[in-house]
Design goal:
Blueprint: H1 10-16, E1 21-23, H2 45-55, E2 64-65, H3 72-75, H4 81-87, H5 90-96, H6 112-133, E3 136-139, H7 160-171, E4 177-181, H8 188-194, E5 200-207, E6 220-224, H9 230-248, E7 252-256, H10 274-287, E8 295-298, H11 307-322, H12 334-344
Helix pairs in contact: 2-11, 6-7, 9-10, 10-11
The chain binds zinc ion.
Zinc ion binds near residues 183, 258 and 301.
Length: about 350
């Protein structure tokens, strides 16, 4: 077992602190229309965010860090063997993801499982990176809070955050994790997995008309309705974080920054404006990263063709505030590394 600790050397701190890291892979994206399919979730969202960050000059191509797909051992930290076997069935997976059955058999060339293994691998990489560098990290995917131990649904097949927490506890000093879930929907997967875990605090603000959980609750649930005023919504975020963070004192924070409370979201109906969504995201950063906590931000939910804009504005503002971007050293063989150090002294 390897162990990853916080890198607190002054050199490293100077290099990485106040810089965000971005995790992304071209294979996060699926153009469903090329397969004759449609879904309310925009499966080209990561690419749209990636491309706009590049187009506006916020980042450079080398700023994106590519993850690896989760392995079977990592998946089994949370999910049952029976459920993982089911995910190998393309049709069963399509059902979990909510792809309408009228489309018929899913084409063999559409490897949706690998897309989710890769994005969930991004969450695991992002967790280790945020913790070792003390930096805010953004994975342009992840946050699948409806995935339970032995079932999936609501576009969530793999509970990436739960796997990251279990693996991080195994290989790092992380113990206490706070999940801040501001997606429009309540995360039944995270509740099922963590409701009896005293070292994980799940906090959710969600719509009151989304209750399918049979009485199970997060450690802190706040229900809102569509009549809520934006200022009151932001006040809820502020007040609860001001109470939870100092009280729970997490080692690590996962932020599920779902964009579905936005007014233009076809499934959400909270009516929050563009600027309100950005204020929400920055309140989270003020209570977590700006208090010295490592934070991994995940896209989570958000539907329709405007969802990516909400995530993009958050990342662009984080890059402006904290700096952009942290990079990993390029991999070189040890001989090349020695040569490089002889030539360049670093
Ligand atoms: Zn949602």
């Amino acid at each position: 077992m390897s162990s990853v600790g916080r890198d607190t050397s002054s050199e490293q701190t100077a290099k990485s602190q106040n810089k965000i890291f971005l995790i992304y892979h071209d294979n996060y994206n699926v153009d469903l229309s090329a397969f004759g399919l449609r879904h309310q979730f925009d499966m080209l969202k990561p690419k749209r965010i990636h491309d706009e960050l590049l187009r506006q000059g916020t980042v450079e191509p080398d700023d994106f860090i590519a993850p690896s797909p989760l392995t079977g051992d990592e998946l089994r930290l949370v999910h049952t063997d029976e459920y993982l076997a089911k995910l190998e069935d393309r049709q069963a997976l399509a059902e979990i993801l909510g792809l309408p059955q009228e489309y018929g058999p899913i084409p063999e060339s559409l490897d949706l499982l690998n897309v989710f293994l890769l994005m969930s691998g991004g969450t695991l990489l992002g967790t280790k990176l945020a913790y070792s560098r003390g930096a805010p990290v953004f994975n342009l995917g992840g946050g699948y809070h409806h995935a339970q131990t032995a079932s999936g649904g609501g576009y969530c097949a793999i509970n990436d955050v739960a796997i990251a927490i279990r693996e991080a506890r195994r290989t790092t000093d992380i113990q206490k994790c706070l999940i801040i879930d501001l997606d429009y929907h309540q995360g039944n997967g995270n509740i099922e997995i963590f409701s009896r875990d005293e070292d994980v605090f799940t906090f959710s603000i969600h719509a009151h008309n989304w209750m399918t959980l049979g009485g199970k609750q997060n450690h802190r649930d706040v229900e809102t309705n569509f009549k809520i005023k934006e200022q009151d919504y932001l006040q809820l975020v502020e007040e609860h974080l001001a109470d939870i963070v100092p009280r729970f004192q997490p080692d690590f924070v996962f932020y599920l920054a779902g964009s579905d409370p936005h007014y233009a979201d076809p499934l959400g109906n909270l009516g929050i404006s563009d600027s309100g969504m950005l204020k929400r995201d920055l309140i989270v950063m003020e209570h977590t990263y700006e208090q010295g906590l490592p934070v991994l931000c995940l896209l989570a939910g958000g539907y329709g063709l405007k969802s990516w804009l909400i995530h993009h504005q958050f990342i662009r503002e984080a890059a402006r505030r904290y700096g952009c971007c942290g990079r990993l050293p390029r991999s070189r063989s040890s001989i090349w590394q020695q040569l490089w150090q002889m030539l360049w002294g670093h």
